[in-house]
Amino acid sequence: MPRCGSSADPSSAPVASRAVQSVATSIATSTKRLRDQAQSRSSSSSSSLASMWRDVQGSNNWRDLVKPLNSILRDEIVRYGEFVSACYKAFDLDSASKRYLNCKYGKRSMFEDVGIGNCGYEVTKYIYAAPGTETPRWIGYVAVASDQDEVRRLGRGTCS
User: Does the entry feature the keyword Hydrolase, yes or no (predicted)?
Assistant: First the structure.
């Protein structure tokens, strides 16, 4: 991700924009390939996540999940990659834009606008950073599971 504090020079924006677009394209391509592979596997892995979510989150240092790579862990890595890719896609690198170096989209529509609208999550907060005395810049978001099926899949009970 570009350094927030170094972007005052508009001439660096095209280079930064191409770099971020290249990274986003690479992530999107890899994510799509992995998602396609994940979808071709049995749907049993998503129902199993509820019983082993702590292990998938690293509570046991991913023991017995890495070699060979467990399909449930792989699916979760792909899912997190999609959320990271959403950040890159939402980051506004157009120096002529009023939202330059901030998120291009509103919280309610961000996931839809970046192509993952049915992910079962909703953005609740944006995260900003202010290096030095500069104006804070958008660096990411906080999202929570909002879909009952996603909450159950994660092994977290029910939404309230």
Answer: yes
